[in-house]
From TrEMBL:
A Pfam family hit: Neurobeachin
Signal peptide start and end residues: none
Record-linked InterPro entries: ARM-like, ARM-type_fold, BEACH_Domain, Neurobeachin_a-sol
PANTHER family the UniProt entry points to: BEIGE/BEACH-RELATED (PTHR13743), NEUROBEACHIN-LIKE PROTEIN 1 (PTHR13743:SF115)
GO terms, molecular function: protein kinase binding
BP GO annotations: intracellular protein localization
Residue span, Neurobeachin alpha-solenoid region domain: 303-546
Species for this entry: Phaethon lepturus (White-tailed tropicbird)
The organism's taxonomic lineage, starting at the top: Eukaryota, Metazoa, Chordata, Craniata, Vertebrata
Entry superkingdom: Eukaryota
Protein name from the UniProt record: Neurobeachin-like 1
Length: 609
């Protein structure tokens, strides 16, 4: 058999045809599909004819040498068969390391580079069936690379929405082959002057990059370089210029690029500085620069209504990706990097600049609030930074300048307050009280009475859900903010006003200062002495509710030890008045708030000792 394989190419082709036909089910070259489950596996290299890999290598080398003069149809078919042969062998994961150590991949990349150059040089008139063999080879070549560098198809699973834990990855027995040094130049060159390269092929290239990054940390850190990051940013910037390309393919290209960037950020977080070629802060700097691109510098033909719509759609995708980036195990570290990248200023500037666009403003505002929430999620430091650098008064003015808000935007502010789903009242308490103050202030400006009633009813429930929530609202001076809003009673629906007064009564039973009480009484004054203010009855009920003792007796002043880092610090020993001192306190354990994070396996348990 070996003699015939070496001396007779036709016999080799016949043998390869038979082999590929027997294991054709392993040729799943479509990156968009999950790998098919097959009970059988291809044979190990030791079970193949002796020296078959050497024969195949020589044939592949001959194809490479003849590429410059152009391959005949028979040679094209042979080169494709050889690549299919390698893909099938790599689906037996025990073969991956040995095949990766040989020069096959470099020969395949050389041929793929030449084919892609030819595909890029084709004009629209020549886009006919003669491209099909070249495209087929390129797709199979990229799938061969995936088989080497992501043998367990981690990337395909990620694309399908299944996230592998670190434990699951560590259980993967076989490691990916070492990444060839040819990959980065190949990837960079493929996207140079690629206007005529099909969007579907660009998507395949992005899939391969994502597969390399998801396949293993060692290869990922080699692939994530200044050159590849430049390519991803350039591809992303090109996604707002669709010309006559398929909008769905362009949108998919943007989505894949953003998923690649998310994977890159996550892999960089798990590496040390001496391993990285690019810092996360550099990626974020370029990312925000693109997000806040100055559209006014564009030529007038591109600044059409259709382009605006596409550009805003891209911005919304980029904002949603920020949330995906921050969904990781090292979230506090990444939050600190985002803060150092001045992300708050970039996001607010985005809202300010978007006022020049005509449509989709509300969708952009919703995505921006989601991104802000993600950066501040469970981080007191990030909340303080936002409060100092931007301030909620400023974001209120910016949001108000966009016009009447939609229900979706107001609900997103509610989500920001509870750092989760606002409908989960009873499960989630208040994590950030500032958006609630903003909502109360916005109520008189809302033209929709239905929205006024909806928000005020929700505020009444969430702010009074437990002692912790009431204390947070009182400490944030919500009582004064409610009274200021009630002063605009002509703009408020009566049900909305009653909800606010009921909320005021509940908060007042927790704590009510003399100045706040004075402001409340002044609220009831009318210009006509003989005419009673419409709020008299509900306000009197609220005052009675404050005076009435509800529930068990409890202290009005106490230490709040809810936060995971909260505690009581005692004076250092040398400041003690004697040889020791005692500290006595009642302990109150609220059980009416369940924190989902602390009930998970990785959650922390409070200890009393």
């Amino acid at each position: 058999v070996l003699f015939f394989l070496q001396k007779d190419p036709d016999y080799l082709k016949l043998w390869l045809d038979s082999f590929v036909s027997s294991y054709e089910q392993f040729l799943d070259v479509d990156f968009e599909k999950m790998p098919t489950r097959v009970d059988d596996i291809p044979p190990g290299i030791s079970l193949l004819p002796d020296n078959i890999l050497q024969v195949v290598r020589l044939q592949l080398l001959q194809c490479v040498q003849k590429m410059s003069d152009g391959l005949e149809e028979q040679q094209q078919a042979l080169s494709l068969l050889l690549v299919k042969f390698f893909i099938i062998l790599c689906r037996n994961l025990a073969n991956v390391e040995e095949i990766g150590m040989c020069s096959y991949i470099n020969h395949v990349i050389t041929m793929t580079t030449l084919y892609i150059q030819q595909l890029k040089s084709k004009t629209k008139e020549k886009e006919v069936a003669d491209q099909t063999p070249m495209e087929e080879f390129v797709r199979h070549a990229l799938a061969f690379c995936e088989s080497l560098y992501d043998p367990y198809r981690n990337w395909r699973q990620r694309i399908a929405g299944r996230f592998l834990s670190t434990v699951e990855k560590n259980r993967q027995k076989y490691k990916p082959a070492s990444l060839t040094v040819e990959f980065v130049p190949f990837f960079y060159q493929c996207f140079q002057e690629s206007e005529h390269l099909k969007e579907s092929l660009k998507c395949c290239l992005l899939h391969l990059f994502g597969a390399i990054v998801a396949g293993g940390q060692r290869n990922a850190l080699q692939a994530v370089s200044p050159a590849t990051m430049e390519v991803l940013m350039r591809v992303l910037a090109d996604c707002d210029n669709w010309d006559d390309r398929n909008p769905e393919e362009v949108s998919r290209k943007a989505e894949l690029t953003l998923k690649c960037l998310t994977e890159v950020v996550h892999i960089l977080l798990t590496s040390s500085s001496d391993q990285r070629q690019v810092e996360t802060s550099t990626i974020l700097e370029n990312y925000f620069k693109l997000l806040n691109s100055d559209h006014s510098a564009l030529p007038n033909p591109r600044r059409c209504r259709q382009w605006e719509s596409r550009f805003i759609a891209l911005q919304i995708q980029m904002l949603n990706t920020i949330t995906a980036m921050l969904d990781c195990t090292d979230r506090p570290v990444l939050q600190a990097i985002f803060l150092n990248s001045n992300c708050f200023e970039h996001l607010i500037r985005l809202l300010q600049n978007c006022k020049v666009f005509q449509g989709h403003l509300d969708c952009l505002a919703v995505s921006t609030i989601q991104a802000l929430t993600a950066v501040m999620h469970k981080s007191p430091a990030a909340k303080e930074v936002f409060k100092e650098r931007i301030g909620y008064a400023h974001i209120y003015e910016v949001l108000k300048s966009l016009g009447q808000p939609s229900r979706e935007l107001l609900e997103e502010l509610m989500n920001m307050a509870v750092e989760g789903d606002h409908m989960a009242v009873g499960i989630l308490g208040i994590s950030n009280v500032q958006p609630l103050l903003l909502l109360i202030q916005w109520l008189p400006e809302l033209e929709s009475h239905d929205l006024q009633i909806f928000i005020s009813n929700w505020l009444r429930r969430i702010c009074c859900i437990n002692r912790q929530s009431r204390a947070s609202c009182v400490n944030a001076n919500m009582v004064i903010r409610i009274i200021e809003t009630l002063n605009s009673h002509s703009l408020l629906h009566c049900t909305c006003a009653e909800n606010l007064i009921a909320l005021l009564g509940s908060l007042g039973s927790q704590s009510m200062g003399s100045e706040e009480l004075l402001q409340l009484i002044r609220l009831l004054r009318t210009e006509e002495p003989k005419r009673a203010h419409p709020y008299v009855v509900p306000v009197m009920r609220a005052i009675l509710a404050m005076a009435r003792k509800q529930g068990m007796a409890s202290a009005l002043q106490y230490f709040n030890l809810y936060h995971s880092m909260a505690g009581i610090a005692v004076p250092s020993i040398h400041k003690w008045p004697g040889s020791a001192f005692s500290f006595n306190a009642w302990l109150c354990l609220d059980q009416d708030r369940v924190d989902l994070s602390t009930t998970s396996k990785s959650g922390k348990r409070k200890q009393l000792y």
